[in-house]
Amino acid sequence: MSDWAPIAKEYDPLKAGSIDGTDEEPHDRAIWRAMLARYVPNKGVTGDPHLTLFVARLNLQTTEDKLKEVFSRYGDIRKIRLVRDLVTGFSKGYAFIEYKDERAVLKAHRDANRLVIDQHEIFVDFELERTLKGWIPRRLGGGFGGKKESGQLRFGGRDRPFRKPINLPNMKNDFGGEGSAEKRNWSREGTRDWRTRDRDHERSRDKRWPERERSWAWGDSERERDSKEERSRGRDRKDRDR
Fold this sequence. Notes:
Strand 2 (77-84) and strand 3 (91-99) form a beta hairpin. It is elongated, with a radius of gyration of 36 Å. Among the domains are: 11-39 and 135-166, no CATH class; 44-133, Alpha-Beta Plaits (2-Layer Sandwich), CATH 3.30.70. The protein is α+β, with helices and mostly antiparallel strands. It is built from 6 helices and 6 strands; from the N terminus they run ααβαββαβββαα. Helix content is 40%, strand content 12%. Residues 51-129 form the RRM domain.
């Protein structure tokens, strides 16, 4: 627990798929894909990764000029790369912005996150592809994105940091039978008491069952007798009327 951190320092698909980073089995197929994937960062991407921000959840109509207008207020920009579809040329909704100095990067990372641009609340984080060891992009089952509806939530990033694991060593010892002898004896006696109670309850229920059957039978015969008396009274009334 001493080296625990809410933000992942090294990417592990299995941990990214767990809310607190303690899962031992993958819970969806995407995690399996990411665990089997071998990803090498794109060598065609240039620039300093430590001075680059990742900007996502953009309006598809947002342009490079609009991004430059907004993000230039935090410092001098060296390059903006708005990712577009190779076939259609339309924006994919995310971009990379490289600044000239570290102070501007830190300021934009702090202040630009959740900023509204073209009616869309954007998400801003540091570039992870070239800076986070073991990084697997979302298209291969990794990343820190995903939706709850698809069951592919990812944790350990800025948007969804890990929750701190609950550490209960005493509870584990008691339930695992590693506690003191007194506790083990108490648990055995307790289970014995519950068993005897259940046995007594079964016996008393078996005894009560014939009594209930007799009472139900008696109730049925009494109802039949009452209905016969009512029918005889009705005949007497008819004879009197005649």
